[in-house]
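Late entry, written up from scratch paper. The run itself happened at the end of the previous shift, but nothing got recorded in the book at the time, so transcribing now.
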Amino acid sequence: MAFTIKQKAYIALIATSIIWGTTWVASKVAVTNAPPVQVSAIRQFIAGLIYIVFFKLKGEPWPSLKQLKPLLVMSFFLLIIANGCATWSIKYLSSGLAALIAALYPLCVVVIEMIFFKTKNTKATFIGLLLGLAGICVVFYDNAFHHNSGNYLFGVMLSLIATLSWGIGTIFVARKKININPYYGMGWQMMMASPFIFIMSLFTGKNISLTGERDTALKKVEVIKKLGSVLHVSNIRLVPEHIKKDGTDKETKKARKTNVLKMTFDIDENHIASFAIAYA
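Output as recorded:
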């Protein structure tokens, strides 16, 4: 089945919305146990390296200084400020709220172009602008009456800075045409952004030693391997059971009545005791 250009555009838009939306959830998980700005720096470095290596293998030439200058400007607004602050904000906000604030960036684009570039807009644009603002107000009104962390307002501020920076960067991208593969250029933007974001993370004072984390993880793996080597399990059984609505359970031999499969086994306590004594 062949798709028209318009259909492909809608498919791309839907895919972008889904993929872009899940990154907020992934970022929230990442910053739960790691410094957010450092997470952003590592993310940009790895992604940028993958892009550059991929396109170099396809034969893309090294970018010239003339190409790198505008790419650095894009990197500053879209990645160093926007992505860095957005990832930082998720430390203090829910991923859903941060994504909603980020959705303001098209409104920022409209306002910036109206003020600085005297762009004329239709009535539909103003209606969309008002509806977007009204939606954000409803979200903030709802969150204002919930218990929020002490850094909630700081997180909102970071998210708004990121949104404004996204708007400025988007306008620059639209008005500055660069003769380079856009995805290859994106890789260079990420690569140039990563050291600057890492420097930002140093000023937050919340960095972790990656080698230290690696060594700790390896030690835990080693302990688990040693535990596995002495763990002795016997009399393993799979017991089909039927759990009734009142919570009681009964072993059954009828497949149609089975709704829980319970595993039972015996552990040699002497092996566990010897392991505890050896590694205490």
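DSSP finds ten helices and three strands in the chain.
(Scratch paper discarded after transcription.)
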